[in-house]
């Protein structure tokens, strides 16, 4: 790769503000994301975490400021290199994990996709589980959501509250899994209210407060 990869930069957010009507959800946020690192985004309810993630995903446009992703000034043009997992899992309860993924893999026509069974294996799930998703534990549902994101071989993973409603052991397993993806040189951004759960993979911790960057500090990753 040339250009941005050689500088090790995955994304650059410069002076980004996002207004909803007259309300500023983000105010002059600037941050740079290096390739292959994990960023943990924390802050109270309404701090702007999901808004920043959705802007990085190209799902929202900033009102002011710029976002550069993989060296491109229009995140929409590199959307296929980004995997976004929202905190409402977009999966069908009446289908099995593999049926869900087969359905979603058809939404990427003409593109190479990871085999659904392999995606499930990568997140530690048996692809041949006969149960419908409605009978999965929360941890298994979150893993299936992550497998769905992996279908398109994303280089940047944007995960909104990946540990929500998970027990501590399932969250620990999810963190180990994410650590493997990071070692595979994917860049990861996680929003969470449970900073301690993500600490083992946090290369950097970005705290937002009322839409502003309150702090941006290196973490102490152990994985
Ligand atoms: N589409 C929208 N229209 C209007 N206001 C919005 C919209 N999206 C977000 N907001 C507001 O912007 C602020 C930031 O929301 P955001 O979801 O980014 O916060 P958050 O830090 O992710 O919060 P939480 O931890 O509760 O998910 C909130 O006050 C929210 O109500």
From TrEMBL:
This protein's UniProt keywords: ATP-binding, Nucleotide-binding, Transport
SUPFAM superfamilies reported for this sequence: P-loop containing nucleoside triphosphate hydrolases (SSF52540)
Stretches assigned to the ABC transporter domain: 11-223
Gene3D superfamilies: P-loop containing nucleotide triphosphate hydrolases (3.40.50.300)
PROSITE patterns, per the entry: ABC_TRANSPORTER_2
Pfam families named among the record's database cross-references: ABC_tran (PF00005)
MF-aspect GO terms: ATP binding; ATP hydrolysis activity
InterPro entries noted in UniProt: AAA+_ATPase, ABC_transporter-like_ATP-bd, ABC_Transporter_VariousFunc, P-loop_NTPase
Keyword Acetylation in annotation: no
Name of the featured protein: ABC transporter ATP-binding protein
């Amino acid at each position: 790769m040339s250009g941005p990869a050689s500088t090790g930069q995955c994304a650059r957010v410069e002076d980004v503000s996002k207004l909803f009507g007259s309300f500023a959800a983000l105010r002059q946020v600037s941050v740079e994301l290096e390739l292959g690192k994990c960023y943990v985004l924390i802050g109270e309810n309404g701090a702007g975490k999901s808004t920043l993630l959705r802007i990085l995903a190209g799902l929202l446009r900033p009102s002011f400021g710029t976002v550069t992703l993989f060296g491109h000034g229009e995140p929409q043009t590199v959307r296929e290199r980004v995997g976004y997992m929202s905190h409402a899992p977009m999966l069908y309860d009446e289908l099995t994990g593999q049926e869900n993924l087969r359905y979603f893999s058809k939404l990427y026509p003409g593109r190479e996709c990871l085999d659904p069974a392999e995606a499930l294996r990568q997140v530690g799930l048996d692809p041949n589980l006969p149960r419908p998703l409605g009978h999965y534990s929360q941890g298994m549902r979150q893993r299936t959501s992550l497998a769905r994101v992996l279908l398109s071989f994303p280089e940047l993973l944007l995960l909104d509250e990946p540990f929500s409603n998970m027990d501590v052991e399932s969250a620990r397993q999810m963190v180990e899994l994410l650590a493997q993806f990071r070692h595979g040189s994917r860049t990861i951004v996680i929003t969470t209210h449970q900073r301690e759960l993500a600490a083992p993979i946090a290369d950097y911790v970005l705290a937002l407060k009322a839409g502003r960057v309150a702090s941006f500090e290196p973490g102490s990753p152990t994985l």
